[in-house]
Design brief:
The chain folds into two domains: 12-97 and 108-115, no CATH class; 140-278. Helix 1 packs antiparallel against helix 2, helix 1 (12-51) packs across helix 4 and helix 5 (140-153) packs parallel to helix 7. A hairpin with a 2-residue loop joins strand 2 (170-174) and strand 3. It is of the alpha+beta class. The protein has helices spanning 12-51, 58-83, 86-97, 111-131, 140-153, 208-218, 225-233; strands at residues 158-161, 170-174, 177-186, 189-196, 260-263, 275-278. Pfam families: Med27 (PF11571). InterPro entries: Mediator_Med27.
């Protein structure tokens, strides 16, 4: 894993260039992944199957190759979209307008991680300032509006409310998981606790439920109900979503899914956050 360029502080004047470097760095990673698409994901599996016909079912092999090809096509389209974006065009104009020495084929720092750390530090600072003021817990009406807005954004989710006045606690079914969200009140703070209510059949190969719930409880979103609900929703594609860092579904050491969710620092401040997915080893 590449080191972060600092402990998390980013000068406001540097943020724009850091964001562009992070995007360029992500494209560099995409190029590496696209290079492996044809040989590793399409040609080699087909070659192995042809050499060992008794070990592979044609239908399953065809389904795998189709899925790999479709995923690769989406990755290629995403790369093309990034490549032709205004940010990258501006970067190339800067490169062509100046005399830069040829660098090595490597990145000294992880700029995306630097942005995430900076965003987390800024949010912590804002939270500490807010906490120093007179604390006003959210009213039942405010909580109800947050929950109802969430239900309107995701009508496909199965949501059960226990109290129509405040709508908390609520039960949410996302993918193979059943969560309960409860409010916890303490002097000067309101937080929201998430409980796993899934049945034993949901665990799969390893105790994925415990991993997911631990990730939620470790997050910085537990004191912001709207953000927390969106974070829970972000697990709807857990079994198919790749890590935003290494671009793989399973980590290489523990063969676990990317259960960590972190708010995307590029999300506009006035919008609810989009969440990035990471393996514990990649964050």
């Amino acid at each position: 894993m590449l080191p972060s360029a600092s402990s998390g502080a980013v000068d406001p004047e540097d943020r724009k260039i850091i964001e562009k470097l992070a995007k360029l760095q992500n494209m560099y990673t995409q190029i590496g992944d696209l290079r492996t698409l044809l040989p590793e994901k399409l040609i080699n599996p087909a070659r192995v199957a042809l050499d060992n016909p008794g070990d592979y079912e044609p239908a399953k092999l065809a389904a795998y190759l189709q899925t790999a090809a479709q995923a690769g096509s989406r990755d290629l389209e995403r790369f093309k979209k990034d490549w032709h974006s205004d940010d990258v065009r501006e970067l190339w104009q800067t490169v062509h307008a100046n005399d830069f020495p040829q660098g090595g084929d490597a990145w000294a720092f992880d700029y995306a991680s630097l942005l995430r750390d900076a965003a987390a530090n800024e949010q912590t600072s804002i939270t500490e300032k807010d906490a120093s003021r007179d604390f006003q817990p959210p009213s039942d009406a405010e909580i109800a509006k947050t929950v109802n807005d969430f239900r309107a954004r995701h009508p496909e989710l199965k949501i059960h409310v226990s109290n129509e006045a405040s709508l908390l606690p609520i039960d949410i079914s996302v993918s193979r998981f059943d969560f309960r969200v409860e409010k916890t009140q303490s002097p000067g703070a309101t937080t929201y606790n998430v409980i796993d209510k899934s049945g034993s059949e949901a665990s799969g190969v390893y105790d994925m439920r415990a991993d997911v719930v631990q990730s939620i409880r470790e997050s910085k979103e537990r004191d912001r109900l709207g953000n927390l609900l969106e974070m829970i929703y972000s697990f709807h594609d857990l079994t198919t979503r790749r890590c935003d860092k290494c671009k793989k579904l399973l980590d290489t050491k523990h063969l676990k899914l990317p259960v960590i969710r972190q708010a995307d620092p590029s999300t506009p401040a006035e919008q609810l956050p989009q969440f990035l997915a990471f393996h514990r080893l990649c964050r």
